[in-house]
Design brief:
Main location: cytoplasm
Organism: Desulfosalsimonas propionicica
EC number: 2.7.7.7, 4.2.99.18
Number of domains: 4
Structural class: alpha/beta
Number of helices: 24
Cofactor: Mg(2+)
CATH architecture of the largest domain: Alpha-Beta Barrel
Strand content: 5-15%
CATH superfamily of the largest domain: Metal-dependent hydrolases
Protein name: DNA polymerase beta
Radius of gyration: 26 Å
Bound molecules: zinc ion
């Protein structure tokens, strides 16, 4: 059994959660969380490191004790300690933490005082009003729990974040490509369209006819497979360990393009394309484009589109949201590419809640091929992360100046991620903000206000002449926290009037601004910053996530500010 890094991460986090619920030593809890975080950010599979007998305690954040636990996980697929904790505490307690406002501490309280051990118990206690009386909860949080429960239940079978699905998709692709006789492997479906979350993987393979049986055999014995749903000649289905279903189909070379188009979807897009074909007297299915009995196209996707008079449509746009007309008129946008990106405009260092030093982050950015990286620490309001006050900001700026002396052709931009206070004022004095290269303004507190008040709060923040970028505008966390109640159309127009840039935050569970609003913003003439919000050097690579989301939002190089050279960017940052 070969565990992926994110699976090991999840196991370590489960231990941390259960230890914390049990009110165990906080240092021990932190050791597990820290190790989970380090593993999440490793680019190499931990399982390979263990198998090569590498000493994991060499990684900062992994102590001796945790290195041994990780080895145990890799070698046995589990952890004795986790098994013991699960016997001691009801496993269903972990479900409670799907409710966004419930962390281990509150879960422990509910369990101890009200005997709440499952989502059903939680709902009952909330409806009876028992939670409001518990210290640290109150009427409002009880109401919030009831509202969240609806969503938790709805999302019952959880879809994986795109980036988590990508780990499995890549491992599987690599494995299949290594099988003798395999020519092409392609993951289609919502994964290929770059959707925020992925429910299952549709894999297409081409290979020599005589190899089909062996390919299917190899697929169902992939080490990530938990159970086999079906095992056929040209189609098999399995469930991978995180509960992800994978359907693999072997397709003929001549049908490859038609099959790829068919299984990539979306449904709405495919229906619209089939309709065009009908109008021309063709029929399109997963095997090809047909005129009567004769196959006229289907070897490549490009051929399929050409047969109905369209230019090739990138998968991220296939939602029947105007892409077909745009392709017919030959005016599809030239979507943002990795090579367009010149820098990153949002990151944290060890000074607040990041994990790299200024120098390490700078070298990381240089290795990405960037001309600039904006360091945007938290402001004082975020006390938990050690946010900076005015005096500390000025000191930190000096430190950045000193480091910049060492570089030519690269610059750390002096920035801050300033909190937007409840009334829309910013968390730092204008006199200090005026000295920074760049200011990202974000909401981290009081995310639940009514729509009118919340929208006014954000627009007031944008009124400040030093607000350059609105950070993670909706504050949603995919699968765990709803977006704030805000009037995004109004905010987009306000950003346009004030020359404020909107952020597309590339953290896998944020992807905020959501793609559909990226499109709306760009159409209104608002510029977007695709930023990683990196908290470590490895995190800088999340840019890939951001680009996938930007492409779904139809964004081009021109719409995105961090495609500009340093001098152009600095000119852009001067507010009118
Ligand atoms: Zn933030
Ligand atoms: Zn941030």
């Amino acid at each position: 059994m070969f565990l992926q890094n994110n699976e090991i991460r999840d196991l370590l986090n489960q231990v941390a959660d259960l230890l914390e619920i049990r009110d165990d030593n906080p240092f021990r809890v932190r050791a597990y969380r820290e190790a989970a975080r380090v593993i999440e950010q490793m680019t190499e599979p931990v399982a390979s490191l263990v198998k090569a007998n590498k000493d994991l305690s060499q990684y900062r954040g992994i102590g001796r004790d945790l290195a041994a636990k990780i080895r145990e996980i890799v070698e046995t697929g589990g952890l004795e300690q986790l098994r013991r904790l699960r016997q001691e505490l009801p496993v269903s307690l972990l479900d409670l933490m799907q409710v966004p406002s419930l962390g281990p501490k509150k879960t422990a309280q509910l369990y101890k005082h009200l005997g709440v051990a499952s989502l059903e118990d939680l709902e009952r206690a909330a409806r009876r009003g028992q939670i409001a009386d518990l210290s640290g909860f109150g009427e409002k949080s009880q109401q919030h729990i009831i509202e969240s429960l609806g969503r938790v239940k709805k999302s019952g079978e959880k879809r994986l974040l795109w980036s988590d699905a990508a780990v499995h998709a890549r491992a599987l692709e690599e494995y299949l490509m290594d099988i003798e006789g395999v020519r092409r492997v392609r993951v289609a479906g919502s994964f290929r369209r770059g959707e925020e979350t992925v429910g299952d993987l549709d894999v297409l393979v081409t290979c020599g006819r005589d190899r089909e049986k062996d390919v299917m055999e190899a697929f169902v014995s992939f080490e990530g497979v938990k159970n086999i749903l079906s095992h056929g000649k040209t189609k098999s289905s399995v469930i991978l360990r995180p509960g992800l279903q994978v359907d693999l189909r072997i397709v003929a070379q001549v049908s490859y393009g038609a099959a790829l188009h068919y299984f990539t979807g979306s449904r709405a897009h495919n229906i619209a394309v089939r309709k065009l074909a009908q109008d021309k007297g063709y029929k399109i299915n997963e095997y090809g484009v047909y005129q009567g009995e004769k196959r006229v196209a289907g070897k490549t996707e490009k051929e399929v589109y050409a047969s109905v008079g369209l230019t090739y449509i990138p998968p991220e746009l296939r939602e029947n949201m105007g892409e077909i007309q745009a392709a017919a008129d030959n005016r599809l946008p030239a979507l943002l590419k990795r090579s367009d990106i010149r820098g990153d405009l949002h990151c944290h260092t060890r000074r607040t809640d990041g994990h790299g030093s200024l120098e390490e982050m700078a070298h990381g950015a240089i290795a990405m091929g960037y001309q600039y990286l904006a360091v945007t620490e938290h402001s004082q309001k975020v006390a938990m992360a050690g946010g900076l006050n005015e005096k500390q900001v000025l000191q930190y700026m000096k430190k950045i100046d000193a480091i910049n002396e060492k570089f030519s052709g690269f610059r750390l931009l002096k920035g801050m991620e300033v909190d937007i206070l409840a009334d829309g004022r910013l968390d730092l004095a204008d006199s200090v903000l005026a000295q920074l290269d760049l200011v990202v303004c974000s909401v981290h507190y009081q995310q639940r206000m009514d729509e009118k008040k919340q929208t006014e709060r954000i627009i007031r923040a944008m009124d400040n002449p030093y607000c350059h970028i609105l950070g993670h505008p909706t504050a949603r966390l995919i699968n765990t926290r709803d977006p704030m109640e805000i009037d995004l159309e109004k905010i987009i127009l306000a950003a346009k009037d004030r020359g404020v840039i909107l952020e597309l935050n590339a953290q896998p569970d944020r992807l905020d601004l959501p793609s559909s609003y990226c499109k709306m913003a760009a159409e209104s003439g608002v510029r977007i910053a695709v930023s990683t919000d990196a908290h470590s050097v490895e995190n800088l690579e999340l840019m890939e996530n951001g680009i996938a989301a930007a492409r779904r939002g139809w964004l081009t190089r021109n719409d995105v500010v961090n495609t500009r050279s340093l001098s152009e960017l600095l000119r852009l940052l001067r507010r009118p």
